[in-house]
Amino acid sequence: MLADYGKIDVLINNAGIGMRKPFVETELDTIEAMIRVNFLGAAYCTHAVLPSMIARKSGHIVNISSGAGKIGTLNMSAYCASKFALNGWSESLYYELRPLGIKVSIVCPGPVKTEFNRDFRDTEPKSPPRLLVTPEVVSREIIKAIEKDKFEVITPRWLAFLCALQRLMPNLFRAFAQRKFRQYITAALANDTQLTTTGTTKADRHL
Predict the structure, then answer these.
(1) C-alpha angle with apex 159: 157 to 82, nearest 5 degrees?
(2) DSSP string spanning the chain?
(3) What average pLDDT is seen over the chain?
């Protein structure tokens, strides 16, 4: 791209993959893939364009993260780890590159109306449809971050409120989240027990 256009003014790192699954059931290859795409992918692309931006003392790097990069979420430990890494790396880059004339922004959307948030098991915590944001809303927030030179954008507002609450009262927030998540853990255990019991009954019938 540098050979074709001569310069890159804005780099938006938007590639990402994810899944919802208990950590103990998640293959290590899957965890590594998420880290490679969600974090290292952004690092590779940024590393490729930074020399030209530094030479021009101009440029803007926008990393698309997630609310899961601000708050740990049930059954998304690998995904959260990749997004927490992206957030921490972005903040470090901000301090490194700001004196060189290069801007850094990170956009953390909540659940978005895409295939990623569909077809999860009933035992998974799901966001009510009214709390989902559209890709168009996220796009506008990205443009706003660039135009207003904002380091961090969290959308929608309810997610920004939760992030503020988690930061100001972490113990209270964790107690609330644990109580909220407990129903899903209990449902999953009950479902596993039912499947095991059913399987045993069928096996007994063959004896």
Answers:
(1) 135
(2) -HHHHS--SEEEE---------GGGS-HHHHHHHHIIIIIHHHHHHHHHHHHHHHHT-EEEEEE--GGGTS--TT-HHHHHHHHHHHHHHHHHHHHHGGGTEEEEEEEE-SBSSGGGSS--TTS----GGG-B-HHHHHHHHHHHHHTT-SEEEESHHHHHHHHHHHH-HHHHHHHHHHHHHHHHHHHHHHHHHHHHHHHHHHHHH-
(3) 85
CATH topology of domain 2-157: Rossmann fold (3.40.50)
**pTM, entire model:** 0.83
Burial label, 182 (beta-carbon count in 10 A; 0-12, 13-18, 19+): exposed
Q: What is the C-alpha separation between 23 and 18, in angstroms, rounded?
A: 13
CA–CA separation, 157 and 49 (whole Å)? 33
Which are the catalytic amino acids?
Answer: 79
Decide the pairing of beta strands 10-13 and 102-109: unpaired
Give the span between the Cα atoms of 32 and 109, in whole angstroms. Answer: 23
Interacting residues of 98 by C-beta distance below 8 A, sequence separation 6+? 104
The answer on pLDDT for 132 being more than 90 is: no
